Amino acid sequence: MRNAFANCLTELAKSDTSLMLFYADIGNRLFNNLKEIAPDRTINAGIAEANMASMAAGSAMMGQKPFIYTITPFTTARNFEQIKIDIAYQNQPVIIVGTGSGLSYANLGPTHHSFEDIALMRSLPNMNIVCPADSDELSVLMPQLIKLNQPCYFRIGKKNEPKVHKILPDLKFGHAYTMQEGQTVAILATGTIMPLANDLFIELQSKGINAELVSFHTVKPLDTQYLALACERFEHIITLEEHNVNGGFGSAVLEYISEQPKTPRVHRFGIPDKFIDQVHSTEDARKKAGLTVLDIITTLKNRAVI
Hints:
This protein is of the alpha/beta class.
């Protein structure tokens, strides 16, 4: 997905000279093509992520449309104060890109895991949050984020994530995208966990459960229009994310639904409230976190959903 980001930014920067990239000393070769067409707008800020956020805010105040890019925990948690005061409070159109989100860097341990980033960004006024499921969703949504002209957190994967759409989806910022329609149970997923959501959908279908599968690429603002209808249509809503079950996408859905007159039961699945360590791959980390079809099906059986 990071290659898709670099390619998309390079193409957009050819015609939009206001686009800039600040990156924190990673992906040097990744942005070689961008450097060729926009050398003065491709800036290695070094391993100084907080300074990078402030630099981007300053450039935005001068009319530029900057991106900041590095590994997710370093572009969110490490420079949170600068994002809060320099970007969100000033309402500057900086797009904060977190790459390798969730458990993508599983073998590097909790320093490189991002299970709190959505919660951090959700807490900030003026901040939008978008989590594409694959490179197709990224390429469709990225130009829309630029047009927003607002602060945005863009949570992307690392590399070799499987595509989840057969054709380029017609996505719109702020609107959930229904991939498969259903009647009794809704599976709402955000980000690169979508292939697991699709496997869960197939498993539920095989058990005679008419499930709906939805890509909730935009976490903030939440598509409350879809959720309001979902409250009327479904008995159970399943949320799926590669983020802490506390404070993330599932929490946002639960917060909204809890205030509605008709409230289906919400089942949140994500990283449990503990550190995931001593793992050697993303798949291994997901197993340790209980993010497998078998674990989810077992939980749903225990809760009498199936």
